[in-house]
């Protein structure tokens, strides 16, 4: 762990093993922190936030320079980071190398470029007085990051907090802490002052809970499941905290009969089976218009049959293992539930154990048809390579089915009718929608999840503002009495 500028072990002396999900082998040992370690880290971050600290004396330009240096170091060590992430999370190497690494460096660069944009407003409507608002940092920000896309999501939490002038305490997932520790090392090398950035490792039920309960933590940024997010809010009830939470999703992927089916199915494959479905915005509910249902199913089966499943460090591999034995068992249990509920497995549905896969946590890409909206596999987030299929008659039914969930994270629609595309994007209750593409955008714009998918604004200047607090200042240019009370004793 990294606390107050020092690399240290846990006060308990305990460690936990990091497992390669492709073969079940131990790849590293990590410190296993406790509540005491958390309070030590928060205290260090609080000291670093003091007005006269080295961190608080930095100008906005100097903070931006540290962040740009960190981005440079992340990119310079891209191969090392990608290898470490692949060996602990199981995402295929080419995905971590060309996606997650640059998502992390990009988060630092984007926020560094906006440090001068945190501006307030002024008003001179009252003669002789100037009123203004300024944006100030919140204080100590806790960043609790998940095991999927751990580099990108950790950086996306740290970067805006630091750009705004806060200090941070980071707690990565116990399954994938290696690349976060590496990034913290790059931040140390870049020159971040002691205490401005701290790293605590350990299980969420102790370390995460301690961060939530610590009254000196001003804000918690969390990416993960809805149930865990609610638990964090509950443990934070002893103090007033701010939250940025991106939680669960069950995103609809809607194909109309006038869509370019080749493009739609290609994007569907990417949207549901990338990273073995372990993606928050995965389009795991396929809604297909009845007129093209048969063609879409034929095309989907053909594409799935040609997925290159293999060891994640092989650059030819397109699809690897689940992150852990526990996650594999969770997904297999949902597949069992789907069968029991009456859904039919069209493709997949089993663990892969042949040959080199025997000790890994591999599950076949799986498609369920004959699904109903009341089924658990349709309503609940599985977070694995499981696609459910439902059909619809018209636009109204498509929107109704898309909204038949408690989540509102993302969604996609494929149609050649741009008017319909816009109507569906407006009608589906989610934070981000794609039309005729999926997981694709120009960048720079904020996004905010709906319903039980979270409470936050991520990205862009609006996202950066989430790490500040507004202060109003009123300056009277010439002091004068109110005259409210009549007794003037100034001459007595």
Helix content: 25-40%
Q: Calculate the terminal CA-CA distance, rounded to whole Å.
A: 67 Å
Overall 3D shape = globular
Mean pLDDT: 94
Question: What is the strand content?
Answer: 15-25%
Low-confidence stretches: none
The neighbouring-strand order within the major sheet is 14-17-18-13-12-20-21
Number of strands: 24
Task: Give the count of helical stretches.
Answer: 15
Rounded Rg: 25 Å
Main sheet? 7 strands, mixed
Q: What class would the helix/strand composition place it in?
A: alpha/beta
Question: Helices and strands in order, then pairings?
Answer:
Elements: E1 2-3, E2 6-7, E3 15-19, E4 26-31, H1 35-48, H2 60-76, H3 78-89, H4 93-112, E5 122-123, E6 129-137, E7 140-144, H5 150-163, E8 167-171, H6 178-190, E9 197-199, H7 204-213, E10 217-223, H8 226-235, E11 242-246, E12 252-255, H9 261-273, E13 285-289, H10 293-305, H11 325-341, E14 344-347, E15 351-352, E16 362-363, E17 366-369, H12 376-379, E18 386-392, H13 395-402, E19 407-408, E20 410-414, H14 418-427, E21 432-435, E22 450-451, E23 454-455, H15 460-465, E24 468-476
Parallel strand pairs: 7-8, 7-10, 8-9, 10-11, 12-13, 12-20, 13-18, 17-18, 20-21
Antiparallel strand pairs: 1-2, 3-4, 5-6, 6-24, 11-23, 14-17, 15-16, 19-22
